[in-house]
Amino acid sequence: MVVKLYPLRGNQSQLSQIQNALFWPGTEGTPMTCSACDSDRLSTFNGEIAIHFPGLEGLNEPIVWVFPKVVVCLNCGLAQFAVPELERSVLARKL
Fold first, then answer.
1. pLDDT at 70
2. Whole-prediction pTM value?
3. Residue 15's CB: how many other CB atoms inside 10 A?
4. Can you tell me the distance from the alpha carbon of 73 to that of 49, in angstroms, rounded to the nearest whole number?
5. Of 4, 42, 47, 95, which is most buried, counting CB atoms within 10 Å of its CB?
């Protein structure tokens, strides 16, 4: 996942900036251009993503499903999303 960080505004944490940018486009902190190609052709979609654990041993682990808002650059195809805290904790425990 690639997420462009912006200078902090007031007491806003970097994580909250990322969440604002990815989940509520049009709010302060929303990326106005793609971090890869600098295009302004960004659009937000609903996502359904299955995260698999690496290696052969990962085949024995259940898939971790996330349903994020995905910001997609319609110029180069870069997609950005945030993994919610609960799913991140599952991923961290299994590694």
1. 93
2. 0.64
3. 12
4. 18
5. 42
